[in-house]
Amino acid sequence: MVDTGAQHSVLNKKLGPMSKKTSLVQGATGTKRYCWTTERKVNLGTHQVSHSFLVIPECPAPLLGRDLLTKVNAQIHFDPGGMSVTDGLGQPIHVLSLALRDEYRLFVPKPSETIALDVQPWVHKYPLAWAETAGMGLAKQRHPVVIELKAEAVPVRVKQYPMSQEARRGITPHIRRLMDAGILRRCQSPWNTPLLPVKKPGGTDYRPVQDLREVNKRVSDIHPTVPNPYTLLSSLLPEYTWYTVLDLKDAFFSLPLAAQSQEIFAFEWTEGEGQPVVQLTWTRLPQGFKNSPTLFNEALSEDLCEYRACHPEVILLQYVDDLMLAGTTEEACSRATGDLLQTLGILGYRASAKKAQIARQEVTYLGYKIRQGQRWLTQAMKETILQIPEPKTPRQVREFLGTVGYCRLWIMGFTEKARPLYEGSKETPNWTWTEPMKKAFQTLRQALLEAPALALPNPNKPFQLFVDEKQGIGKGVLTQQWGPWKRPVAYLSKRLDPVAAGWPPCLRIIAATALLVRDADKLTYGQQLSVYTPHAIEGVLKQPPGKWISNARLTHYQALLLDAPRVRFQTPCFLNPATLLPNPEKDRPLHDCNEILAEALAARKDLTDVPLSNSELVWFTHGSSYVKDGQKKAGAAIVDDSGQTIWAETLPPNTSAQKAELIALIQALEQAKGKRVTIYTDSRYAFSTAHIQGPIYQERGFRTAEGKEVKNLPEIRRLLEAVQLPRAIAIVHVPGHQKGEDLKARGNRAADAAAREAASRDYAAPILAVGLPPPGMGTLPPVPDYSLPDLAWINKDATLQKDDQDRWYRDQNNNLILPATLGRHLSCEACQLMRAEKKQHSGMRYRGGGARATLGDRFH
């Protein structure tokens, strides 16, 4: 049974009498009523229980529901050594795990127990090539495989899990068969890992599976050379329409294992009670070992090199132990198939006759149905996704995306459709399954049911790539000309990184095109590619806006896209399938990308870094921050061209120099409202924020490249607002600490001195003085109720004195100092009087969540 998260356990066949109980079941095709079985005795391995099952004949596999798991008392434990599943007594429960890419195999129709009629003549003609007639294979030209351990690896000993008598009896024939074939042998080893009995679906037979996770951790990694299924079929030319598919049986057992490497795969075994316990190990490459697929893939590929050289008229694809041969005619395919079977038999490999598909025009390979140069998703692959229930956790969302992502080539705009699910795949404290996620889930399932047939790419013909970008997602359609039509080869989509997603549309399309061209290169094999976009990106790349794109990123884009004559840019003058919207005529562009970028770059159009010729005001700004006596002091100032201080202020402790520079520049802009002003600053940070980074941050939603909030966000927002206030504005950068006597050097030194002098003063919090009691304030209590934080704040200011008669503290002007609770109430009432928004008042000082305010004597 398969655990899919179902509430009730389900059978797909009527096994015995049925009860009168029925239930309504909501499925993908609607609601239907199904019957329950009568109470049955169910063997859970450790004990028996009575249980009733729901019978759904349409269900592709029996389902293990929460009801039966509760009776098992299943518990999942996560330890540093890995995950384990136990029952209520702590006894292990045997669980079969599958990678997402192999999950579709659960829904593949069970192969026939007999050999197909069209395959039987091939079995009689080439008996050495088949496991049914020649037995277990052994690669004759391969040297024994030596397993290299990590330098710090030490032998690991994991105890054998408890095993039921039924399971032990089920795997005993397999163990004996492997020992008789010499694939298992007795040994004495310091290594030991457990053996798991896995029940075969649809029967009572068991097969042994060894848990080699601890061994895999101690074996050196090798670079995987197994081909990518995403691109493997790209080398299959459309005119090759006759196919043969072979599945090598017990393929890993074909490679011998070196004697010095055999002991690391040892496990203990006994045939039953009263029988001796011995250790067995493998003499061939075992299943479950992490490097087995790569080692076998390379070995078989080398052995078939001579066959490929002698048969250039056919195409031979290999994915580990799955072979596919394609020819242009039935005769060529049959002839090459016979030679391949003869070669496999001589080399010592064995194919499964029950799974063979020989000289056919339609075959199933790697989960795809292939016919006449086109490929479809198999029904088994679709069933895998349709059987997935609505996710309830971020992990389940990621699992669904991993499964459906295997089929993304067939889903146009996959990334755009899946966007809510990608956002919902992140772990958050209050995660909920939202309506947009549900809609995206259903949309992807529906798109899978409507998945079209895609043409196999022809590497001898040029390709066309139609690209569009919307809201940070690039989508494209890769096509090839087929007569008068453009036939789809793949639907591509990619999500832009946070930096590129914050660019203007004319630059986002460049990033999207680069991502999709890189993906398309996996399918085009270097063939000529014509790119159709609604923007003139070739001109932008040749005259790039350097302030937006870094040199490294620009070099990458230029190297990838300005690759003439392989990559050519075209203006679409017909329907763009990437947008499904008609584009204007070729001679009437919608806009000029360079003009759009120039406008998007500046905080305001007339902002310049050249001094104005007719300035009404010429000011110098500076922010200072330094540490004195272990305390960080800060200040900011504005001086005019004569050296007179226009404004200077001591800033709160721990204010950074960058923040102080921004505050000085903001004050200058706000005080120059309606004037023509030239402002000099020696801060590169303040200069670049006003001219470059500020507008970019605004386009990006004030997020960094990592998606985090930018530093000094309130000041940057205020700066972008303040820069609009002057009638004309020039913000000019001047080198700092110059010794000359020109205007720039003298003004900068004066601003520096004024800022340092302001920073040297003690910081005093602004005090709010209110002369009249606001309505609703009431009368003050006769004795103040100062809290400990209140008193701590008061003791820091020597000018505040306590009146011994009424115990109220007063400042130098005889104003009362209110406790935090009263001050907070006062601030709210004062804001209501002034009809102010509910935000922190500039004249209030907050500490510990409370406000300190002063009232005139006449208040009480």
From TrEMBL:
Gene3D superfamilies: 3.10.20.370, 3.30.70.270, Acid Proteases, HIV Type 1 Reverse Transcriptase, subunit A, domain 1, Ribonuclease H-like superfamily/Ribonuclease H. The keyword Nucleotide-binding does not apply. Residues 179-370 form the Reverse transcriptase domain. This is Uncharacterized protein. Belongs to the beta type-B retroviral polymerase family. HERV class-II K(HML-2) pol subfamily. Residues 1-68 form the Peptidase A2 domain. InterPro entries: DNA/RNA_pol_sf (IPR043502), Peptidase_A2_cat (IPR001995), Peptidase_aspartic_dom_sf (IPR021109), Retropepsins (IPR018061), Rev_trsase/Diguanyl_cyclase (IPR043128), RNaseH-like_sf (IPR012337), RNaseH_domain (IPR002156), RNaseH_sf (IPR036397). It comes from Muntiacus reevesi (Reeves' muntjac). CDD domains: RNase_HI_RT_Bel, RT_ZFREV_like. Keywords: DNA recombination, Hydrolase, Nucleotidyltransferase, RNA-directed DNA polymerase, Transferase. It comes from the Eukaryota. Residues 613-760 form the RNase H type-1 domain. One of its GO terms (molecular function) is aspartic-type endopeptidase activity. GO terms for biological process: DNA recombination; proteolysis. Pfam families: RNase_H, RT_RNaseH_2, RVP, RVT_1.
